[in-house]
Amino acid sequence: MKTIQILGSGCAKCSRLQDAAIEAADELEIDYELEKVSDVARYAEFGVMVTPAMVVDGEVKVCGRVPSLDELKGMLS
Questions:
Q1: Per-residue pLDDT tens over the stretch 12-34
Q2: pTM, whole model, 2 decimals?
Protein backbone atom coordinates (compact mmCIF):
# COMPACT_ATOMS: atom_id res chain seq x y z
CA MET A 1 0.00 0.00 0.00
CA LYS A 2 1.32 3.43 -0.94
CA THR A 3 0.99 6.39 1.37
CA ILE A 4 0.21 9.59 -0.49
CA GLN A 5 0.37 12.84 1.43
CA ILE A 6 -0.82 16.13 -0.03
CA LEU A 7 0.78 19.10 1.71
CA GLY A 8 -1.08 22.37 1.48
CA SER A 9 -3.35 24.87 3.15
CA GLY A 10 -6.46 23.95 1.22
CA CYS A 11 -5.99 26.46 -1.59
CA ALA A 12 -7.32 25.81 -5.09
CA LYS A 13 -3.99 24.37 -6.30
CA CYS A 14 -3.82 22.07 -3.29
CA SER A 15 -7.30 20.77 -4.00
CA ARG A 16 -6.45 20.25 -7.70
CA LEU A 17 -3.32 18.30 -6.76
CA GLN A 18 -5.30 16.12 -4.36
CA ASP A 19 -8.01 15.42 -6.94
CA ALA A 20 -5.44 14.67 -9.64
CA ALA A 21 -3.46 12.36 -7.33
CA ILE A 22 -6.63 10.42 -6.51
CA GLU A 23 -7.52 10.17 -10.19
CA ALA A 24 -4.01 8.96 -11.10
CA ALA A 25 -3.93 6.37 -8.30
CA ASP A 26 -7.39 5.11 -9.18
CA GLU A 27 -6.52 4.81 -12.87
CA LEU A 28 -3.39 2.86 -11.95
CA GLU A 29 -5.55 0.69 -9.66
CA ILE A 30 -3.03 0.93 -6.83
CA ASP A 31 -3.83 0.39 -3.19
CA TYR A 32 -3.19 3.68 -1.39
CA GLU A 33 -3.93 5.74 1.66
CA LEU A 34 -4.30 9.49 1.20
CA GLU A 35 -3.53 12.01 3.93
CA LYS A 36 -4.10 15.76 3.68
CA VAL A 37 -1.40 17.64 5.61
CA SER A 38 -2.11 21.28 6.45
CA ASP A 39 0.24 21.72 9.43
CA VAL A 40 3.11 23.99 8.38
CA ALA A 41 5.42 22.35 10.92
CA ARG A 42 4.95 19.03 9.11
CA TYR A 43 5.93 20.66 5.79
CA ALA A 44 9.32 21.42 7.34
CA GLU A 45 9.79 17.74 8.21
CA PHE A 46 9.84 17.06 4.47
CA GLY A 47 11.88 20.18 3.62
CA VAL A 48 8.94 21.62 1.69
CA MET A 49 8.85 25.42 1.47
CA VAL A 50 6.27 25.82 -1.33
CA THR A 51 2.88 24.17 -1.61
CA PRO A 52 1.10 22.31 -2.96
CA ALA A 53 3.35 19.30 -2.55
CA MET A 54 2.92 15.56 -2.84
CA VAL A 55 4.86 13.02 -0.80
CA VAL A 56 4.73 9.33 -1.70
CA ASP A 57 5.99 6.81 0.84
CA GLY A 58 7.98 9.53 2.61
CA GLU A 59 9.63 10.94 -0.55
CA VAL A 60 8.74 14.39 -1.89
CA LYS A 61 7.70 13.92 -5.51
CA VAL A 62 6.56 17.43 -6.43
CA CYS A 63 6.15 20.84 -4.85
CA GLY A 64 4.96 24.23 -5.98
CA ARG A 65 2.89 23.02 -8.93
CA VAL A 66 0.18 20.64 -10.09
CA PRO A 67 1.69 18.13 -12.53
CA SER A 68 -0.19 16.55 -15.42
CA LEU A 69 -2.08 13.32 -14.90
CA ASP A 70 0.60 11.40 -16.83
CA GLU A 71 3.36 12.90 -14.66
CA LEU A 72 1.47 11.91 -11.53
CA LYS A 73 1.03 8.36 -12.81
CA GLY A 74 4.79 8.17 -13.32
CA MET A 75 5.40 9.41 -9.79
CA LEU A 76 3.03 6.82 -8.36
CA SER A 77 4.25 3.85 -10.42
A1: 999 999 999 999 999 999 999 99
A2: 0.94
- List the CATH number of the domain containing 7: 3.40.30.10
- Number of domains the chain contains: 1
Q: What is the largest CA-CA distance in the chain?
A: 32
Which of 57, 73, 17 lies closest to 8 in space, CA to CA? Answer: 17
Q: Which helix (H) or strand (E) holds 4?
A: strand 2-7
> At residue 51, what are phi and psi to the nearest 5 degrees?
-110, 160
3-class SS string, 31-63:
CEEEEEECCHHHHHHHCCCCCCEEEECCEEEEE
Task: Provide mean pLDDT across the span 55-72.
Answer: 97
Task: Please identify every residue annotated as catalytic.
Answer: 11, 14
